[in-house]
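[job 4471] stage=fold_predict status=RUNNING
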Amino acid sequence: MDFSAERPRAVLAFDTANEVIALGLGVLDDTTQTVRCVASKRIPAHRSSNTRLLPEIDALLTAEKMERADIATVCCGRGPGSFTGVRICIATAKGIAQALGVPLIGVSTLDAIAWQMHEAGIRGQALVLADAMRKEVYPVRFTLDDAGVHRLELDTVVKAQEEARRLAEAAVLLVDSADLSAEAAASSVRSADLFSASVEAATLSATVSDSSAEEVVSPASPTDSSARGAQLIIAGDALSKYADLFAPCGTFAPEEVWTCAGSGLLAALQAAWRRGDANPFDVRRHDPAFLLPVYTRLSDAEENERMRDVAKAQIPRNLHTGVQSASVPSHAAVGEDRDIDKGVQSVSFRPATIADVPTLAELDSQLMPDDTWSESSIRDDVARRDRTWWVACDETSNALVAYAGGWVVEGQLQILKIACEPAYRRRGIARELLAHLASDARDLGACECTLEVRASNEVAQSFYQTVGLAEVGRRVHYYRDREDALIMTGPLPLSVHDVAGMDLLIGQVSPADSSHPLILAIESSCDETAAAIVDGHGRIIADVVASQIDFHARFGGVVPEIASRKHVEAICGVVQACLDEAAEHLGTANLSWNSLDAVAVTYAPGLVGALVVGVAYAKAAAWAAGIPFIKVNHLEGHLYANKLARSDIKPPLVVSLVSGGHTMLVHVRDWGDYCVMGSTIDDAVGEAFDKVAKALGLGYPGGPVISRLAQQGNPAAIHFPRAMMHSGDLRFSLSGLKTAVVTYIHNQQQQKADLNVPDIAASFQAAVIDVQVAKATAALDETGAKEFCLGGGVAANPALRAAYESACAQRGVRLTMPPARACTDNAAMIALVALDRYQAGKTSGLDTDAAAHSNLEEPY
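[job 4471] inference complete, writing structure tokens
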């Protein structure tokens, strides 16, 4: 299919929410708002979606004679479904859409199945049941008529047995109510809680606020003539597991519509387009960074926390991002902070449209009575090409709660309007709106921002100062009431220091004059989302890290489910910040994906749910950009991190890898040729630090706080065991030491004795260091290496670094240590490995998958 003579009009649609891969290709017609299905496939995946999705997409485009450049928009299923499956789908979709620079629109997987039922000629009351594991289902009811598909309820998750019982009772009520009045029958149904939304579903309105979600309409009364005597028609992959359970509840649709297919996704997209809820040609409205899965519950850790600690506080569940705000208190006494999570996490941002104008005008008259614009003025301004307007909407009510508008002229963004409802102020909404205006203005060539503010409005002036604006002049009698206006000007207030609620750490980079190849590397193995770009000389020209530590701290360790959800939310923003940082370094307005030579990613080892996000995104972006994909071993990255300190470092050398998940000594015979000389037989060093800190009530992460306290204590105050110090090999054991410390703390508490926390910290740390240094020197003696290096988060410990400095100096061994910031997970180290692999021609296939474990000694 040749689109060469016109703008791209193809839409690529896919879903992996269950055990199949759904693929669809369509053609967009913007004159009729039609999506014509060109190809639709349903491929059994059996937990192989991440290895098969991109090869299948590539094969489908080839079969239909389409090019990647023909794709005008990407449409993907948002679930609900398998957590991993949905993540693979959305991460892949984000990678493709961001690299192509096209809109990404999400549709409900269950709505897509309902549309397939509709296309199969099914009419009447329908139920889609998706398997939610844990003996649970995702049930959503629909009405299917000639006009289309009408969703009757919000997404929720319930026990399969409970849903079957409710449906069976509903079927009885439908029959028994045939002779009752409509009012009596409706009352019976309501009392049984069969056709009214449950309390749980009422909290989930955010899940249908996405532009692609079907409108929720009130269900028909069971006494309506259309419903009387009609049986519920049931579809969904849950029937494969619970067919016997749901058999009494209605009739089953043909099995071919139980799972999602490409045609259903395209039909759901067309419906959203025609409702005005989506525009497949509007990339600003459908920025890939905005899209998130359908969440029906928080992570298990957060749900348990709510039940245990905050049930009385009635803190709303943030089901938009699927992760509570890091600032949500973990106790019941929240007082005036009880609504803290109704802030930015429950507000969505989008470009304003003409349809918003009446609401904008009404809100403007309320919030800015002394400077109100007429509805016609706002309508004219929103429609102008040199204007940018954004709005913020409450995810629960979908009400417009804040807005901002700007005029881009002569390289400058002039802020025309910015206002927020009082109930939503002081929550970062205005700052985010300014960032969106600034991003648009930058794309239109602006490089600075200016505005006028009332001379008496000190609060607003203070806010503008925080985003980098400063007073440069005054307009006398500027306002209608003759009050002066202060002119404030500064750089564009771009949101480059915050992504998904996480501060971005921008690392130091090399001087300019970079050369190809330029390789983008991504790291997502644990709780940091990171991206970096390396040039052909091995110089890091951009290095960005978003740490999730605040989201995990109250749980005393990394929660895998929270980690993967935050990666999905953050990855587009982190990568874009990295590209922007590189562009600034190179002295260009922007760095396009076409300027890159490869995309690399950590594929192992680590948390699988976290790795999957990075791998799926990186593969998809590489495919969309038409450049090689490179997988990198995370542990090898920590070895290469030493190059960030000394670029000329060369093997042979010995490296001590000490982190929260690993403790090992590695003989680097050459880059890519490694021998693990010894590793821990139980706990890792970082894990031991965390557990001791937890026992002392010091919080998470434990390493930094133990290190700080140890500086004030006596390392000889308490004798803790040096496990395996004289084992005759290079293995480690930390479990016994950890137990000894915890036992000591317990005994002191039992005796009502005061704990000398600095002494405990110093004595514990000394026991760890003694063993680490003894084993390291033995490894140096065994190999004869004259170079010793460190790697991993614990390598940032000052006392450990000092001990290694002393030991190496005594032996005449050169010690190389990564910068403290590079000891923790980062993408710069991944980029350095990727550069070597790229130059050696070691690229990877689109069938690459994530792996929790890997053998550093085995080539890959």
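[job 4471] summary: DSSP finds 24 helices and 30 strands in the chain.
[job 4471] exit 0
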